[in-house]
Amino acid sequence: MHLDLPLAFEIGAFAVLLAILAADILLIFKRPHIPSAKESTVFVVFYALLAVIFGLIILWIGNAEASSQFYAGWLTEYSLSLDNLFVFVIIMNRFNVAKKYQQEVLMVGIIMALILRGIFILAGAALIESFSAIFYLFGAFLIYTAYHQAFRGHDDDEETESKLISTLRKRIKFSPEYDGAKIRTVHNGKKMFTPMLVVFVAIALTDVMFAFDSIPAIFGITTDPFIVFTANIFAMMGLRQLYFLLGGLLDSLEYLKYGIAFILAFIGVKLVAHAMHVNELPFINGGAHIEWAPEISTNTSLIVIVASIAVSAIASIIKVRRDLAKR
């Protein structure tokens, strides 16, 4: 459903968001450094407040439904981005990327994620427009992903990456050391790639995997392209600073993955219920709509998403404190 927000507002919003992202990029490449906890906290809070204000502007210009869809979409994508962040931590540690250059690497990863999500959003919107039964597939995929999220270990992702990286190393000659954040350098008089290329490939692979999860999830909240795009952009804002703020603590949030899994499963069920409600497949109910299928409201989704994140985070903190008390 398109929410018919003013076109001038949508264009202006995209222009402002792109300007903020561009300023963030320039700041990183002009002054590479390790951000302090205070700096990281300020930026994370700033971007979160910006998202809250943006939702209020949508409420003022549009309506409560549009605002609720934005908040639910932003929180869903933000929670999935936290899991993405966990894998970024693993990649940085595994390849011993110097902390000074991790900001640049993260920003490249975030830009790649936004581009990939943009492509997937356009593809998903086109599929929904021409084939409403895609909601069945999206729902089934999210339910499967929820199970995978709850019961897999990050070792599975590492094994997939290791195979790709091993193949890459066999085909391309790399310099023995990094040269800052460069992917090309000169070693013993010869031009060759640095290990940074492998880091970027690993991050790109991670971005693709998480884009597959996040796009069906956001379409379970809203099908309005503007809300989908802006929710994803805001979810990515501040992710770089959050990495430095939570980097060492992500391992402690043991139950967060279960909260994320519950969100994915809930949205998956919501998508299947919606697909049944608008059913046109001839082999299901004779091609007729299944009227008894429930339509879960956006406000209900928002409550479930917030509660899932809060409960899993609080449970993780309690466990950490209990573990510390036992030592």
List the helices and strands and how they pair.
Layout: H1 7-30, H2 37-61, H3 64-94, H4 99-130, H5 134-151, H6 154-171, E1 184-187, E2 190-193, H7 196-219, H8 225-236, H9 239-246, H10 256-277, H11 298-326
Antiparallel strand pairs: 1-2
Helix pairs in contact: 2-3, 2-9, 3-7, 3-8, 3-10, 3-11, 4-7, 4-8, 5-10, 6-7, 7-10, 10-11
Give a nutshell description of this structure:
The protein is an all-alpha fold and 327 residues long.
Explain what the structure shows.
The protein has 327 residues and is an all-alpha fold. Helix 2 (37-61) packs across helix 9 (239-246), helix 6 crosses helix 7 (196-219) and helix 7 (196-219) crosses helix 10 (256-277). It is built from 11 helices and 2 strands. A two-stranded antiparallel ribbon has the order 1-2. It has one domain. The longest helix has 32 residues, at 99-130.
Task: Supply database-style keywords.
2 strands; globular; single chain; two-stranded antiparallel ribbon; 327 residues; mainly alpha
The average pLDDT is 80
Number of helices: 11
Main pleated-sheet profile: 2 strands, antiparallel
Secondary structure: number of strands: 2
Shape: globular
Assess the beta-strand content as a share of residues.
under 5%
Biggest sheet strand line-up: 1-2
**First and last CA, distance:** 54 Å
Question: Which structural class do the helices and strands define?
Answer: mainly alpha
The poorly predicted ranges are none
Order of helices and strands: HHHHHHEEHHHHH
Radius of gyration based on Cα positions? 21 Å
Q: Helical content, roughly?
A: over 70%
Number of domains: 1
